[in-house]
């Protein structure tokens, strides 16, 4: 299974130090939640793993190969990316949009194969967008669009899936459905990295949580260890009710720290 090693990663965006020395080892077959307040560096970390931002110091290794030296085509086949809050500009129908997920596998000017179509159909079924297959993607609701974009990422069938806020705009039923889907992908061997703001869903579904704060890892480990009153107060500045349901932590923010 795939293994990603992040070593001493420091990244500045303009003059702003967005990541200040991140070390982590991420293994296939796990669902890893990246949480933290706005501006903590979650998307920057996701983009750094994809080689979309250049480290000032440190490196990302994908199966021991330095990501910055890997050809873009190799990274596109290895890591599927669901970017944060993507807007669509082209009035493609949903099936064609999902088919774009197969581009990293296609030779120039070639047509999609039976295997490509099977991957597209599977992604459409998994994300519950079959009824939208022939709709124009730019005419979908926010939540429908989010599921279609997840389908495009799943169609890549990459060993790594990075989903940046995959639950944004989703209703509670579809939030659970997406988390179950990410979990199932991880159980099938994929390394799934999900940037999340819903702490209860992160705790319920993730194998491990990385809590980022001001560009550093404030905590890394089992969800029930990471989501404690001290971390919530220090990192998020909130007092929270912490409980248990179905054997998993439940976190309800109650008030901001006085
Ligand atoms: N292009 C840029 N130039 C300068 N600073 C940037 C740039 N992009 C992001 N930043 C800063 O880097 C920091 C980390 O941003 P990042 O988008 O990684 O945060 P995040 O944890 O994903 O936040 P959110 O939860 O709000 O999406 C923020 O302080 C942000 O303002």
TrEMBL record:
InterPro entries noted in UniProt: AAA+_ATPase, ABC_transporter-like_ATP-bd, ABC_transporter-like_CS, P-loop_NTPase
Keyword Ligase: no
PROSITE patterns: ABC_TRANSPORTER_1, ABC_TRANSPORTER_2
Similarity remark: Belongs to the ABC transporter superfamily.
Keywords linked to the UniProt accession: ATP-binding, Nucleotide-binding, Translocase, Transport
Coiled-coil ranges from the UniProt annotation: none
Domain of life, per lineage: Bacteria
UniProt function note: Part of the ABC transporter complex HmuTUV involved in hemin import. Responsible for energy coupling to the transport system.
Protein species of origin: Sphingobium phenoxybenzoativorans
Stretches that traverse the bilayer: none
Domain ABC transporter: residue ranges: 4-239
Pfam families for this protein: ABC_tran
GO molecular function, one term: ATP binding
The protein's name: ABC transporter ATP-binding protein
């Amino acid at each position: 299974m795939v293994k990603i090693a992040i070593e001493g990663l420091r990244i500045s965006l303009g003059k702003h130090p967005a990541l200040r020395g991140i070390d982590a080892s991420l293994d296939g077959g796990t669902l890893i939640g990246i949480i933290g307040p706005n501006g903590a560096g979650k998307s920057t970390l996701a983009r750094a793993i994809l080689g979309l931002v250049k480290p000032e110091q440190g490196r990302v290794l994908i199966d021991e190969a330095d990501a910055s030296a890997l050809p873009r085509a190799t990274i596109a086949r290895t890591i599927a990316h669901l970017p944060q809050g993507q807007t669509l500009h082209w009035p493609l129908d949903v099936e064609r949009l999902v088919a774009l997920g197969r581009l990293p596998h296609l030779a120039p000017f070639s047509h999609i194969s039976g295997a490509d179509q099977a991957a597209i159909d599977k992604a459409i079924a998994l994300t519950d967008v079959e009824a939208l297959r022939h709709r124009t993607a730019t005419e979908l609701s926010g939540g429908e669009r989010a599921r279609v974009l997840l389908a495009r990422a799943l169609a890549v069938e990459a060993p790594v899936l990075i989903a940046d806020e995959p639950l944004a705009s989703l209703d509670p039923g579809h939030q659970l459905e997406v988390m179950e889907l990410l979990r199932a992908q991880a159980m099938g061997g994929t390394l799934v990295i999900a940037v999340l703001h819903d702490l209860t869903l992160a705790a319920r579904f993730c194998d491990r949580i990385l809590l980022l704060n001001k560009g550093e890892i404030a905590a890394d480990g089992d969800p029930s260890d990471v989501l404690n009153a001290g971390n919530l107060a220090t990192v998020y500045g909130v007092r929270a009710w912490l409980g248990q349901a179905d054997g998993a932590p439940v976190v309800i923010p109650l008030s901001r720290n006085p």
